[in-house]
Amino acid sequence: MSEDVGASPNESGETPLFRSRTTEVGEWLDDAEGLTLGLDFDGTLAPIGADPEETEIYPDSRKAVEELVDHPRIEVTVISGRELADVVERVGIDGIDYAGNHGLEMRIDGEKEVHPDAVTARSEIEDLCAEIRSEIDHVPGSFVEEKGVTASVHFRQTPEEYVEEVVAAVEELAADSEEDIHVVSGKQIREIRPDVDWDKGRVVDRLDERAPDGWRTMYVGDDTTDEDAFRAVQPSGIGILVGDRPDTDADYRIENHEQVPSLLEWLATRASSPER
């Protein structure tokens, strides 16, 4: 791997655009026996909408992932904050692996598993959701999404003057829970999780362990919760941010989710190149 690939953002402090670095990323991929590819869902394979129930995978992204399924040198895993059953249904592509609830639930080679500590905390999270729902019921645009072993409190559509009230209610009620509950910031949401040492980065670590010798890892995502995965791929892998923000550990970025299909198509073509 060259020193430039997988390095920190350039000297200007900006994360370089992927399209400006395809030569070095191509050389990195040529040196690999295969690619373990992790993909976020909301904001990456699908646009972020006001209502998570209405979100659908971007059609061009679906087509691009489907074309990777039978590629002998690429293994795809969709890693989402959504409940496992939800993300499997919304992606709906066989032949790939899935991780839901930031990896607390996984479906690897068709076999489902759930982190045991998450199972233990499920009832406490259900009770906490009921308390939060009661506390913020009067706040316009906010709602609680229960996801089995985790939950999300959304305030994307909430007027700015109410946001602090919603965040304070979530954090205070979680702190008062009998079980250890962890609150994590996301894009205009707060994630409620069992206090388990597990995140998208740990999922990436596990995928690395399963990969054949000589394979390398790439992760593509847009949210602050994807930063764990960007760090996990280092130092030999590559993280690609969808969008832009100054405080990221991603190596490169693309401008929006509509550019994800082109990225995936480029990976499939380059991984099939006879020059590698």
TrEMBL record:
Catalytic activity field: alpha,alpha-trehalose 6-phosphate + H2O = alpha,alpha-trehalose + phosphate
Top enzyme category: hydrolase
UniProt pathway: Glycan biosynthesis; trehalose biosynthesis
GO MF terms held by the record: metal ion binding; trehalose-phosphatase activity
Keywords per UniProt: Hydrolase, Magnesium, Metal-binding
EC number(s) stated in the UniProt entry for this protein: 3.1.3.12
The protein's required cofactors: Mg(2+)
Region called Disordered, residue ranges: 1-24
Domain of life, per lineage: Archaea
SUPFAM superfamilies named among the record's database cross-references: HAD-like
GO biological process terms on file: trehalose biosynthetic process
Pfam families: Trehalose_PPase
Family (UniProt): Belongs to the trehalose phosphatase family.
Function: Removes the phosphate from trehalose 6-phosphate to produce free trehalose.
Name under which the protein is recorded: Trehalose 6-phosphate phosphatase
